[in-house]
Every structure is written in C-alpha cells, then in structure tokens.
Amino acid sequence: MSEPRTLNVGLIGAGRIGSSHAELIARTVPNAQLVAIADPVEGVAARLAEQLHVPAAYTDPAQLLADPQVEAVVITAPARFHTGLVEQAAAAGKAIFCEKPAGMTLEDIDRVQQAVEAHGVLFRIGFNRRFADGFPQARAVIEAGRIGTPQLLRSTTRDPGLANPAAVAPWTIFLETLIHDFDTLNFLNPGARAVQVYAVADALVAPEYKDAGLLDTAVVTIRCDNGAIATAEASFSAAYGYDTRAEAFGSGGMVTAGDLAASTLRYYGPEGIAVDTVRADTQSMRGAYTGELQAFTDTALGHPSEGPGVEAARDALRIALGCIASCRTGAPVALDVVGAAR
Ligand SMILES: NC(=O)c1ccc[n+]([C@@H]2O[C@H](COP(=O)([O-])OP(=O)(O)OC[C@H]3O[C@@H](n4cnc5c(N)ncnc54)[C@H](O)[C@@H]3O)[C@@H](O)[C@H]2O)c1
C-alpha cells in the first residue's frame, strides 16, 4: 500500500493563535507538514520556524505564496488583512484556511468568494466551535428532530482576561469574538436564517477605554426566520476561566454543549467540591483547532470532510454587522439592510 500523501502548509501571521496553529500543524494534524512561516515582524517567523523545525521563514507573505513547496496556507494575520491575503493566496493557487473573520464588510466576503471561485481553490474559515466536543453532536441531535421545533437558542463566550484594552480595535467584540457565537447559533439552527438583531453592549470591564471605542461586554438578541429566538453573550473578562457554551431548546427537548472543566478531576474537601477550569482558548479548543485543521487538510488532499466555507463566513459576519448597526441606532436592525437579501 502507498503512503498517504502529505499536504505542505505555509502559515501567515505567527502571533498568538498562529503559533498555536503552527504547532498543531507541525506536530499533531495527520498528513499535514508545516513547510513555511511568514510574519512581517523581523525575527518572529524565524524564531517559530526554528522551534518547530520548519525549513522556510519569510518576512513577506508574498514570498511564502511564491514558494513552490507551499500547497496550502493557514492565515492567522490580524483580521483587517484577511481579505487581501485570501485574494493573493487564491491567485497563487493555494488551498486556504483563514481565521475569522474573512473580511470586515460583506463586500470583502464577495471578494473572497470571487477569488476562491475564480481560482478554484478550497476555502475554509476558522469557526472552530463546530469541531469542539459536544457541538457537532448537538447539531446531530437537532437534525434528527430530537429537540422538536427549535424555539430558544443561546451561545456564550467569556474570555478569561482583558490584558491590553488599548489594543482592542473598535467592534472587536462582534467581529472577532461573538462571530463564533453567531456561527454556533447558525450551526445549531440548520436551514434557518437570522432576520433581525438587537445588540446591547458596554465597557464594563475597562470603562476608561469606552471613549476610545472599547466594548467588552455584550448581549445580542436574534430572531430567526423559523421563529426561533436566539441570544449570544460575551464578556472579555471572566474571573474563572475561558467559558464557551451553547444551548438549543425546542418543543421536544434541549441540548447543551460546552464545559469549562479542565479535566475530570474533582477535589472533594472540607469546603466542598472543587474543579479546575480551562484558562485559554488554546487549552480548551486544542481538540477543535486540530479537528478543523484536519478537516481542511483531508479535503485539500482529496478526501472531503465537512467544514465551514464562504457562506458560513458571510452569514456570521452579517449578524456581526447588524449588531454594529444596532449599537449605533440603539434599536433592533432588520438584517436585509445589511445584506440578508442576497
Ligand atoms: N478561532 C479562534 O479561536 C481565534 C483565537 C484567537 C484569534 N483568532 C483570530 O486570529 C487572528 C489573529 O489573532 P491573534 O490573536 O493571533 O493576533 P496577534 O496580533 O497575536 O498575531 C497576529 C500576527 O500577524 C502578524 N501580522 C501583522 N500584519 C500582518 C500581515 N499583513 N500579514 C501577515 N502577518 C501579519 C503580526 O506580526 C502578528 O505576529 C485574528 O483574526 C483573530 O480574530 C481566532
């Protein structure tokens, strides 16, 4: 029997999540090999490449895209660069895995779609919660009709800390944090579309940064075209760890997914029962990140495996943009005015 083929992957943007994805590609994802890393900050790509025994390091993503060894790219640069990098990677004929969001506007998503279609390349977006323990199983229960008609859905992201409020770009809570929850709600309400959103947000963790545009706490209500009402909620500072959970309640039952216990260890003592909690996405989502990168690799190697693409990127971003409009007006926003009518 012949050896399974390996996908040669290049990573663009070696920051916090890029370093984690790089390590998973280099050491954990089957049939993937990390062959190049690019980051514009001098020394950043070279240091990570040395640590992971990756043969090539570049300061310009264009050099990585011109490297004939690279068959596929993982884009983990800051969000505002994603659309342009996807266009360049598609033009270079690379399969593309892009961290969320794929763009900052719906026009950006149109550009992504045009690029991947014009060049016939694979595109996947990093909505990792679809691969997190409990979430695909919850969707399977819902698809089997076991919760009946979906009526109430909820999804929560609570990050463990806000280290540097000054570095958080305005609207990040919707465009980069709650976008996971919007995708989760879409995933757990198959076939339905969000039609209206109402967002309430504030800077409760670091109020002194509110005038600079910081929003660190938000609740979003979403009405869907199958009648279901959903809520998404986020905080940038949960004292107890990294907390991501979802729930779908219907006429016939309910499913929940997500758990912040770090392990099955329970300490039983004089004060009660204690459970360690996960403290970072790179800890609790390690399996999900591996799963999404594996599905991408398998698909790029010709063994199709499900994962979110351009439409999922568009559907979640549309809700995020609706939230921004809702915050600006203080009123519910019909999503057809932010592109639902496409
Ligand atoms: N799916 C998840 O759970 C998850 C978690 C964290 C971050 N993210 C997403 O990943 C992206 C990166 O986030 P991060 O926290 O790692 O950011 P980061 O700032 O830690 O890292 C970004 C890296 O990209 C580099 N960079 C800057 N401009 C670039 C360019 N034009 N081309 C290539 N590289 C460039 C920077 O030098 C830096 O090393 C964001 O879109 C974010 O929303 C996703």
UniProtKB/TrEMBL annotation:
GO molecular function terms noted in the UniProt entry: nucleotide binding; oxidoreductase activity
Residue ranges of domain Gfo/Idh/MocA-like oxidoreductase N-terminal in the record: 7-127
Keyword NAD on entry: yes
UniProt cross-references to InterPro entries, sorted A to Z: Gfo/Idh/MocA-like_OxRdtase_N, GFO_IDH_MocA-like_dom, NAD(P)-bd_dom_sf
Pfam families (alphabetical): GFO_IDH_MocA, GFO_IDH_MocA_C3
Record carries keyword DNA-binding: no
Keywords carried by this UniProt record: NAD, Oxidoreductase
Family from the record: Belongs to the Gfo/Idh/MocA family.
Source organism, top-level taxon: Bacteria
Domain GFO/IDH/MocA-like oxidoreductase: 137-255
Protein name, as recorded: Myo-inositol 2-dehydrogenase
